Amino acid sequence: MKPLKAAAAALTAVALSLGTVACSGNGDGADENPSTDYFGYQLPVPLVTSNAATNLGDSLKMQRLSGRVFPGPFVPGPSGQMIPNTDLVTTQVLPGANRKVEYTLTEQAKFSDGVPVTCDDYQLAFTAGKNPAIFSSHMPQFDAVESIECTPGSKKFTIKYVEKAGGRWRELFGAGTVLPAHAIAKKIGLETAALTGALQASDYEVMARAADVWRFGYALDKFDPALQVSFGPYKIQAVGKDGEVTLVANDAYYGQAPQIDTIVVWPGSADTADLVSKGALKVGDISDPKPAWFDPNAEGNPYKVETVVGEMTDTLVFADGGAWADKEMRAAVSKCIDPKAVAAASSKVAGVEVPVTPVRVLPHNDPLARRLGDIANPHLNVDIEGARAAAGTELRVGYSVADPRYAAMVEAMRVSCEPAGISIKDVTGKGKTRGDLVSPDVLDEVMGTVTPGTGSIDAYLGAVAPMREYDSSDSRSGELRALRGEERRLWDELPSIPLSAQPRTFVIDKSMEQVVPYTGPVGIGWNMDRWRFAAAAPSSAQKPKKTKD
């Protein structure tokens, strides 16, 4: 029996958290070949879920793992393009005060278990996006969506936007966010059509049961093959003892088959130097800009390591509950946080100069961002006297994983706000996510009681993709007025403070072709199914790893 097929049914789950991985045996019949025998791709975070739409998944940007497992209608590219995924779906925009978008799924689009992809899957994503309190979801583009028209089992559906919205409709249903409704329905004992009907009727009991599976069922420490069915070029085959995730070609995929049929994705906790020494690392999106194992001048060095200024914006996101839900408190602390000092701290650790980025609604490298400067740039100034309105308070900040660069950024905030009497404290520990933000108090109008909000951080520090985070107009110059209005509103309401561009460090084996760095949420793996080894025979140090069948 060939390696991966021997492991398919027998590999046991791995216990892992944001900061640690607990090992367990592979079980009888497990793959006898170590994961390092195969093509390796490393990410800088723990691989905890394949659902990129939860607060957890978004915070860790898990679409870097599942972007080609649960692909979107459009594939984001490194030059800002949105490439139509016509193997999956075609779209048509209908004019009117309320923009409508018609989606037609291809007849051939199906999951790896043979079940067709239908509008039921998108109805589930819509419901999750519109009900973040129930699903613990983070899909802000759904704020601008009014409704979805879906007949259960249909290959067609229509999205309707609120008036004058929908300029960023291509960002909807992004990579890693549309999950198999039929698999979730089965888990809660329903037919798919019954689940869809209940979601459309806002049946809270069914919605809550579905949300529990949607939120927790895709956790990789409890790998469930019945849920992890794919409609992309890759599917998740197994989770290894060190938290590594094995992707294999999805034979049911209608589009072009992947060039490399097996990719082992390694978590940030894996020893990169060990992967290098075993010849396992071929592509990496890593957090260390100057890895000790890399010597560019070494004879036969097979790697290119490059740190670049990315398109996402490192942003301080405030909680909706607790003291810092107060707009006046946010305004006060924003006056002592010095974005220039924060950017300098980030740059020092990254080894590349990252620009201050005070604009929210556009990437910093968008030419139109300059035309919002008169709105955003005044907020770069520090006003200690104004910040003293929040003197005596504490702002607890967390980020996804222990990271020297983010630690330096929080320290810069602490130093600049200390004279104003505001204490900024790094409480990251083993890792925090958007889900750890303090939630609002809940009022029971019948009983007249208030349940305090939960959460352990007042602000989350992480990278934000402007085009998918804000339900604003698109970046066309004709929409400049709307963009300016949205930027002005965001600075007034202060849900967040944009700080500086996010740097990214990539590792690429020189024997690889078609590996094109992309600094958006999906990362360098945006086209991983097109990765391939160069036609010329690689040296012994660069030989392709075995592939699992």
Automatic annotation (TrEMBL):
<feature type="domain" description="Solute-binding protein family 5">
    <location>
        <begin position="99"/>
        <end position="356"/>
    </location>
</feature>
<dbReference type="InterPro" id="IPR000914">
    <property type="entry name" value="SBP_5_dom"/>
</dbReference>
<keyword id="KW-0732">Signal</keyword>
<dbReference type="Pfam" id="PF00496">
    <property type="entry name" value="SBP_bac_5"/>
</dbReference>
<protein>
    <submittedName>
        <fullName>Peptide/nickel transport system substrate-binding protein</fullName>
    </submittedName>
</protein>
<dbReference type="GO" id="GO:0015833">
    <property type="term" value="P:peptide transport"/>
</dbReference>
<dbReference type="GO" id="GO:1904680">
    <property type="term" value="F:peptide transmembrane transporter activity"/>
</dbReference>
<dbReference type="InterPro" id="IPR039424">
    <property type="entry name" value="SBP_5"/>
</dbReference>
<feature type="signal peptide">
    <location>
        <begin position="1"/>
        <end position="22"/>
    </location>
</feature>
